[in-house]
Amino acid sequence: MTDRTVSQSITHRNLVTLPPRATVLEAARIMTKANTGSVLIMSISGELHGILTERDLMTRVLSKALNPATTSVSEVMTPKPYCITPEMTVSNAVLIMIERGFRHLPITAPSGKVLGIFSVRDALPREIGEAVSLSEFLDQAGNTLA
Hints:
The chain is α+β, with helices and mostly antiparallel strands. The protein has a single domain, classed as Roll (CBS-domain). The strands form two sheets. A four-stranded mixed β-sheet has the order 1-2-3-4. Strands 5-6 form a two-stranded antiparallel ribbon. Helix 5 crosses helix 6. The longest helix has 21 residues.
């Protein structure tokens, strides 16, 4: 069986985006309406500035008692997020997520254009299992060599 690429696996093709000046409240509302766990923060020209996730809302806004109506997304987003190519295999993308603690990865073309966003929800159990096995192997290899 051929490994799927991230571009083949993503279920949501519509990008959910906001400009950097948008408020956290606007982000929460658009994420809820779109039933998605993240929003890309992009300029009008399409340049990716960052990503704001549901985890960011909890750890960077709610836990610090920031006012979502007056806090801009640019204040609490993850700037310059780690991006992947559309040709990357799903298991490799999941491995990156495991190793770096991400739940969402923007998919970008070589030109820098954002094509979509990969979420662990887009992966099949087999692909997640392959990534977990590889992560465990790499941990054991690292411990052996250390």
